[in-house]
Amino acid sequence: MVIETEQDVTPAVLAAMANTPDARLREVMASLVRHLHAFAREVKLTEPEWERGIEFLIGLGKLTNDSHNEAILASDAIGFSTLVCLLNNGTVGDSETAAALLGPFWRLNAPKTESGASIVRSPTPGPALFADCRLRDNSGQPIAGAYVDVWHASPVGMYENQDAGQADMNLRGNFITDAEGRFSFRSVKPAGYPVPVSGPVGALLAAQRRHPYRPAHLHFLFHKPGYKTLITQVFVQGDPHLESDVVFGVTKPLIGDYRLRRDTPPASDVSGEWYSLEHEFIMEPGEAVLPNPPIK
Ligand code: BEZ
Ligand code: FE
């Protein structure tokens, strides 16, 4: 088809793609083209703005490598990652879910750790945290023998791979749930932190007068055949950024009961205040697929 006016472009592109044999690819691309063309018409996109958008995408690619994923960060910062997460978890988006973003800092092969042991692998000043967790199915039965990965930022808001002062795999560990679905561990209370702002996503946040902070949280990944892999985060209640998480990751069920304690701590080397966290996780039936690690 020879194009005569701007109105002809959208139907021409849709017709060109209409014979895509993969039905899902056909559906997704047709919808993407319709919405993208409608967006350009709605804002009357100028040529310099189109060029700026392409430069932004190129910037995402240039900054993405084995240790940093700027493309996922861009998706996170406009709420797209959380939208996709909520559409795909919790009875297909109809109910609350315990799932949350994987984030860019999950690593495969965290050290295997006995339940109750510490995941602090190099001196990490900060308030001691003792977490006691349970994993259940949606009828309340314990899930035993599940693989659990835990990872989090330090009390100064740095993951070990961002911080030469921390040992490899500090504040990371994997556990197996016991017959009652339980696992517990000792760590230090995490702090909130800014997402990386040295690339195009940081420039966009600055242009939008947005802060780059995530509220303090622990990350968890649960894996067991027969259950949908549960990727989630448990946020510290009272964190000043709970309602303005830069990646829109906070939902009510994910706010944890981190309790400030002054009674006798569970370990003799803890003095003064410490924190406890009790949390229950629920896995839905489904396929146990591990995500691709965003970093090595
Ligand atoms: C995280 O929680 O690790 C995270 C998630 C999205 C963007 C940046 C960090
Ligand atoms: Fe995180």
Write up this protein.
With 296 residues, the chain is an alpha+beta fold. The chain has one domain: Aromatic compound dioxygenase (Protocatechuate 3,4-Dioxygenase, subunit A), CATH 2.60.130.10. It has 7 helices and 11 strands. A 5-stranded mixed β-sheet has the order 3-2-7-8-9, with no helix packed on it. A 4-stranded mixed β-sheet has the order 4-1-11-10, with no helix packed on it. The protein is globular, with a radius of gyration of 22 Å. The mean pLDDT is 94. The site of benzoic acid has 9 residues, from helix 4.
Return the domain count. 1
Question: What is the succession of H and E elements?
Answer: HHHHHHEEEEEHEEEEEE
Portion in helices = 25-40%
CATH top level assignment: Mainly Beta
What is the residue-mean pLDDT, rounded to a whole number? Answer: 94
Taken as a percent bin, the fraction of beta residues is 15-25%
Structural class per helix/strand content? alpha+beta
What CATH architecture would you give?
Sandwich
The helix tally amounts to 7
| Hetero groups | benzoic acid, fe (iii) ion
Q: How many β-strand stretches?
A: 11
Low-confidence spans: pLDDT under 50, at least 5 residues?
none
Q: CATH fold name, please?
A: Protocatechuate 3,4-Dioxygenase, subunit A
Q: What gross morphology would you assign?
A: globular
CATH homologous superfamily title: Aromatic compound dioxygenase
- Ends apart, CA distance between termini: 47 Å
Rg (C-alpha, Å): 22 Å
Q: Give the strand line-up of the largest sheet.
A: 3-2-7-8-9
Main beta sheet: strand number and arrangement? 5 strands, mixed
